[in-house]
Automatic annotation (TrEMBL), chain A:
Name of the protein: WD repeat-containing protein 43
Gene Ontology MF term list: RNA binding
All copies of domain Small-subunit processome Utp12, residue ranges: 473-575
Subunit structure: Part of the small subunit (SSU) processome, composed of more than 70 proteins and the RNA chaperone small nucleolar RNA (snoRNA) U3. May be a component of the proposed t-UTP subcomplex of the ribosomal small subunit (SSU) processome containing at least UTP4, WDR43, HEATR1, UTP15, WDR75. Binds to RNA; binding is required for its chromatin association. Interacts with CDK9, DDX21 and SUPT6H. Interacts with RNA polymerase II. Interacts directly with UTP4 and UTP15.
Broad class of the protein's primary localization: nucleus
Entry GO terms, CC: fibrillar center; nucleoplasm
Automatic annotation (TrEMBL), chain B:
GO CC term, one of those recorded: small-subunit processome
Organism lineage string: Eukaryota, Metazoa, Chordata, Craniata, Vertebrata
Protein origin, superkingdom: Eukaryota
Quaternary data: Component of the proposed t-UTP subcomplex of the ribosomal small subunit (SSU) processome. SSU processome is composed of more than 70 proteins and the RNA chaperone small nucleolar RNA (snoRNA) U3.
Acidic residues composition bias: residue spans: 766-784
Protein name: WD repeat-containing protein 75
Residue span of region Disordered: 763-800
PROSITE patterns registered for this protein in UniProt: WD_REPEATS_2 (PS50082), WD_REPEATS_REGION (PS50294)
Amino acid sequence: MAAGGRGVADPLSPAGVPCAFSPLNQAYFALASADGQLRVWETANNRLHQEYVPSAHLSGTCTCLAWAPARLQAKESPQRKKRKSEAIGPSNQIDLLALGTAVGSILLYSTVKGELHSKLISGGHDNKVNCIQWHQDNGCLYSCSDDKHIVEWNTQTCKVKCKWKGDNSSVSSLCISPDGKMLLSAGRTIKLWVLETKEIYRHFTGHATPVSSLVFTTVRPPSESQPFDGVTGLYFLSGAVHDRLLNVWQVRSENKEKNAVMSFTVTDEPVYIDLTLSENKEEPVKLAVVCKDGQVHLFEHILNGYCKKPLTSNCTIQIVTPGKGKKSTPKPIPILAAGFCSDKMSLLLVYGNWFQPTIERVALSSKEPHMCLVRDISNCWAPKVETAITKVRTPVMNSEAKVLVPGVPGHHAAIKPPPSQTEEVESKRKLGENEISIEERLGALDIDTKKEKDDLPQTNSFPVLLTQGLESNDFEMLNKVLQTRNLNLIKRTVLRMPLHAVIPLLQELTKRLQGHPNSAVLMVQWLKCVLTVHASYLSTLPDLVPQLGTLYQLMESRVKTFQKLSHLHGKLILLITQVTASEKSKGMTCPEQKAKLVYEEESSEEESDDEIEKDSDDNWDEDEEDKESEKDEDVDEEEEEEDAEEKDEENGEDRDVASEKELNGDSDLDPENESEEE
Amino acid sequence: MVEEESVRVVRCGGSELNFRRAVFSADSKYIFCVSGDFVKVHSTATEECVHILQGHRNLVTGIQLNPNNHLQLYSCSFDGTVKLWDYVDGILIKTFVVGLKLHALFTLPSAEDSVFVIINKEKPDVFQLVSVKLPKSSSQEIEAKELSFVLDYINQSPKCIAFGNEGEYVAAVRDFYLSVYFFKKKTTSRFTLSSSRNKKHAKNNFTCVACHPKEDCIATGHKDGKIRLWRNFDDDKKYTYTCLHWHHDMVMDLAFSVTGTSLLSGGRESVLVEWRDATEKNKEFLPRLGATIEHISVSPAGDLFCTSHSDNKIIVIHRNLEASAVIQGLVKDSNIFTGLMVDPRTKALVLNGKPGHLQFYSLQHDKQLYNLDIIQQEYINDYGLIQIELTKAAFGCYGNWLATVEQRQEKETELELQMKLWMYNKKTQGFVLNTKVNMPHEDHITAVCFCNAEKLENPTLVTSSKDGHFKVWILTDDSDIYKKAVGWTCDFVGSYHKYQATNCCFSEDGSLLAVSFEEIVTIWDSETWELKCTFCQRAGKIRHLCFGRLTCSKYLLGATENGILCCWNLLSCALEWSAKLNVRVMEPDPNSENIAAISRSSVGSDLFVFKPSEPRPLYIQKNISREEVQWGVFVPRDVPESFTSEAYQWLNRSQFYFLTKSQSLLTFSTKSPEEKLTPTSKQLLAEESLPTTPFYFILGKHREQQDEKINEAFESELVQLPLTENIPAISELLHTPAHVLPSASFLCSKFVSSLLLSKETKSGEEIPEDVDMEEGKESDDSDKENDFTEKIQDTNNTDLGEDLLHQLSKSEEKELRKFRKVDYSWITVL
């Protein structure tokens, strides 16, 4: 037998591997594999419950198996008080499992104790057991075999109660009627026996090949008017070897009609059948048929008299592997068994190889005619069938997961007081506008850079590289510029860069700050420079808040630990640098384009004065300073000296900022704090 | 309510399994453990519960095998009784009423008719070890008042008492001394260690004791992790002890192997240490057992050990230190922060499990499915370590998403928070981390809830925190050119006057979000995140918040800390009604309009089931539990019940489970005890009958021959065979119920002697009736086989024909007696 329960050598054995769900709530799934081992799986968590190897597993492999009807345990002793809480206990405990073997013996295995309970041999079969059925009430067991006989066992004494010849050829399948008084058997023909007298009640003929499965589909007759004797009027279903039709038969009161009433068509030989019994007349019978080709066909039909045309399935379920990459095609995964859950709305599917099957509960939707489930069972192939002791499942944590830390966009939406709802909408709109404006500016940038190249071919090409990099979003170009550690270079580059590139640069810096902490150290230098140099320009922008919101949040979250102290520190640094800068200020030669922009900027200065009142603007400027100062204070000190030397390069913009900052700083700071800081 | 009595509170799973040492049966097939008021019998091979021995009316405090009959088990309980059970069939044989609260039970093979128990007689913390004489009587319930005092002022824990060297002495430890009482000499010796005042021996306290089964050797465990082996203790002066030190923390339990060659110890490190030959060098370890080892026990056959752990599990360990089975109850090591949830996918109950794990507990099968490792960090078992705790969890979108919040707080200001959002991957059938959020809030998260509306374009999650904000997270498309991906981002942050957000809840259709800020409830539109309205009753902080469902979806319910239950109408934005009820748990039923509220009063907890639209509760049950109820949940039924009576109707669609402070899981049952009992009669009993093995042919045939021989010898001697019925011993044996029979050894000689005379008649009886009836129909094959076996016997008989007249030798008689003794269990079958 190949993996997946395909290719059964013997046509008389029920196709596929013998397997069954435990009755009632399908807690377990028993599967007797071709290597002679019995494995019981827990359906709820797909865990191997136990493994049993019969002593003669190689000669007498298991050919069929059946769970005993639920054993109900004593739950409470009668003398218990009423009010006291009591245990529910392991109710409806499933215990015995009957295994039929190829040599004719029947083993009763106790799944609770995990050992062989008894062995039914004496007086039984002398050839392969084909089917076992438990009687639902009286603890009897019926088995049929290749030796043409049907045996009734008393499981309490493990002795044969009765043995009779069931057919001229081997008997391949059995089924007990819902009332427990009749027995269906099938070899070449289907026979209905009266259990009490062991006499044939009815014959049914129709299958050309040996019948592999028999099951009653209804418990009540279709018309309730006539008296019900327990079996007349009931429907049952049969499937046969190499037959793609499942026949439905009706037990009639008069013994004339012998043909099937209707049939279901499936794609291959049925290997496992499960159905839900309909409680009333209106409710359809739901039927799940697992075929040899690994598909499940679902039928939903109200059984009511004849139907000439074979019915096709309402829904087909297939399972395939995902198929790695685009080239490899998905491969089908065979389904071994399917069982309806107690709610009748979902199906337990067992698929994969019999060595390590996967059990999954699939919810059924009546609409789809074809369900194709993509499942990755590649990790199940590892032969790890030993019982998992720890019962711990580790969910997958891989690098693909998104990580949100404070400051990263998505971690925090902008905090706004509830009434300012409208502002948000407004700012969003502004954002949109602004993007266009950046584009425009970048468009203008082209000309600028060209000019720059023409005019200043001798100067460091960093500003050019930077603007070009920002424009084209060229990662390598930006890397070349931004990964410099030379503070002077940074300062000069920032000074010479065109104003419209400031916002893109800030956004690029923000992005990099969110990245690796090592690169963030470098970026902080850049950020500090940009903010000190271009503070006044930034303060003129009306839509600064939405544009640099993430940067603000990032800084806010990173300086959270000593917030007030770092605010103070930042303000003081800014103050001192600006004061020294203003003292040393000299007229300096600015690039031509700068001159243009200075002009433009002056015109908007009045506006900016008004806007500067916004807290957020100031805050983030300061915080930025803070942060940097916090991180590399020693660098700052050096830098200050350098600053002093370079002040001559600074233009008028800085002075504006300085004055503003002075104002803010003075108003915010306590004299005490200041002294401490000093 | 007329039917009030009929809906009863029943315990379902989750009692403590680790309260006392587990006990193995003589053949190591079964393991017994106390579990609340019951004793559970588990199979060591399959972990399955075979029987529940029910009968005690209070906590069971001790179990021991009957040393005279290894198929019987003694148990003692706080209810003052000692009970004797037949564990194979799960039958109560006898009850001995002592009348005092019994704390522990010990048995000794040498003391046949008495057991030892720990009682406290006078003061609350003074415990005594006494022996109780169990009188022989045929009645079911016997008074056992004959107590004889053994040791005084002992520790109440059974770990601090041990009987040694086949019951020659008993050792007890408490605080800083070890006392040994010799039964023969009737003297007590006491050995004291230097007390705690000396700093060097600060933690010298005794914690447990074990005695060597063969030699005079006592092992004691100490708080500082040392194990001392005491020898020569029959001499007060010359006693010696040696130290074994590996444990860095308290030794929780000690046990000697059956032969005494190795000593097992365990503690908080959750490592089982086996000391071979009681030397420090030869140690074997079984590490990573998951939780503190509370108890260790050894099977009488010597092939298995077991350890009971603080996370409510018992691990069965093979002799070569390999764990072979785990009997796991509901994990109850840590606090339950997450509350009770139902996983929509597996329908399992989900709550905190092992540290850092979520446990999935199947209610249908009453066992743990698995633990989901959320934190994924090695758990270090050490006292005083501050661990990462899993504080919140929520399932969303039909089980496709799981949100978990973990926190660790070392000091007031050092809060570490992490929120993880897991997606269920259908392909691999498991959860995959999708988004990890560090510090989602600046303070503790008080509530996490998904929007579970049916037609929802993208999943929405809301977290509320003590930092005064609630955050709305939505699933967005994070695809870039490299891969397709989705991830969660914060969409909106809301606050209300800097009050702490204490609770949040989505309405059934997902259109409204209610967030409570201390005393105030705010209602937000989930489309625009606009504040719609606020409710404030000034009745204390809101503890629970939930929307009505189905027809009652216009109502919002809030329970406050001042014991007021408010119901607001969302259409009129007004208070509909309010009631004075100190609500501890409030849970809506997902399948109906019903809401269950559990209130706490001074006496106990009361349950109220009501519909928000109706002022009168549907159902009230007073005093559902003595202790405080902490969490509750409605679990939808797979198959709806159809109760018509008013009291049951609320249980039609869902079942209500609740968890008390001591972490016992309770539920309501509508079945009467009688109803539950009836299936027992239908119980399928299959006799164990295994075919003969080659070994049997070697040994069993020989015995059979001897049997034959003996019988024939007697037959030839005796002229007249008395009828079975006339022999008083047989009739007594056959007509008295099995559970009132005296012990087998008592009956054996009498029985065997009578049996020898009457073999033929008895064997006739033994053939079951149905075989008699059906015999005619049996096939020829079986007859043939019977013939065959008969032939074998015939040949044997002829072989040994000359010995037939031999008298029964002494040794043969002994063997026969042994044989009968072993196989006497057939009595119960009769």
